[in-house]
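BUG: 3D viewer hangs when loading the predicted structure for this chain

Environment: internal workstation, default settings.
Expected: structure renders.
Actual: progress bar stalls at 90%.

Input used:
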Amino acid sequence: MTYLSITFYVFVLAALFLYYSFPLRARWIVLLGGSLFFYWQAMGTGWELAVILASILAAYGAGLLLEKVKNRGILAAAVLLMVLPWFCAKNGNYVLSVLLHRNPASWIVPLGISFYTLQVISYLADVYSGRIAAQRNPARFMLYVMFFPQIVQGPVPRYGRLADQLYAGHRFEERMVTGGFCRILWGFFLKLMIADRAACFVDQVFRFDYKYTGCYVLAAGVLYSIQLYADFAACISISKGVANLFGIRLEDNFRRPYLAVSVQDFWRRWHISLSEWLRDYIYIPLGGSRKGKVRTYINLAVTFLISGIWHGAGLRFAVWGMMHAAYQIAGRLTQNIQRRAAKLAGLDRAPEAALWIRRIWTFLCVMAAWIIFRAESLRKGIRMIASVFQVRNVWIFTNGALLEMMEWREWAVLAVSVLILALVSLRQERGVSVSELILRQPVYVRWLVYLAAIFAVMTYGVYGAGYDAQAFIYGGF
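Structure tokens produced before the viewer hung:
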């Protein structure tokens, strides 16, 4: 049962009927039952469910203990206990096969383990610091960890922001439910009309990297950047939309990241819940920027190294993380040089041009890191980036070579869809909410927009024979 399957929405409708049929104070029980059912259906065996329930029970007990005994040793032991299953599931075979040269093992990998591990660690840290009180009801704590709209890919919730919403029964609000429907529809648009269509080209280039070099890599890098954003934002949009149907608001996880003016700004906009988690539970405890420049740079490097390791096993993920640390350190070291260069170029008198130059430069830096992230190995990723500078084949954009990889109709639909995403993002950047504009229209106008969007996604979306609806990219992390 996945977020794009009919079965999932039949399940959501059944859960909604039960939720709004139950008394207000008991509606959280429907969410808990639905979350357990979803998890059981989404996983292949009962072992994955057993692992997450064991983790939840351990975190629940550790939280109660930490509230009574404020001891760093207990906190460290509890965090290690939470991290160990994640480390084995995500990095165990890399350690066994690459570092120890032994046969890989068959690990149990529970759904959403990377996300709920961060979730329970933040809970334990917040209980230890006194920011929140430990949850005494084990069933309610289970719901906080397993709430089905967000367990697969986040956003990574904080107990203080989400728990009360889960436990308080919500009345049916037409505006909230309609907004949730719009978010789900937007998620389908991002996934089926942008992410999966871009993947048709991206997958070919990265699979046959020895054949496609130079500008093929440049085009694939741009499209992979768009694909990854559209794919991840799609799942988050669907998660938020489904939660809205129950009257619950999940945190924003993106804020137009490709309109960022620096890599530091990019991380304020990209995967916001993870960025804030890394800031609050890694960077600031290490000392943040309070202990001098050198220590600040070391803290940045450690934080982004951990981010890279969290995303996956292998050297390329660690290098991807360190690239983002290096970008930020270089940006801080060259601030004065950048200002002087902008002044010499006259960009201080053309703020709009300066803004777009910074946005494009930031995008190119992020894109280079994404190529390393996407490549099958670090060596292949470096070779692909190098070929952009070594191979001169600009003519592929004009001689029809790209049409051999994807039909012109596919390119046209992708281009129009990306243009729509760009226009919506620019409007949002100026403080205009497109969804609010739609919701303010008369009912018949709103439904014309909804039906047109549904028709477009059903007609031009990428699905059918051989399509894998499970393949949300960040589900692998």
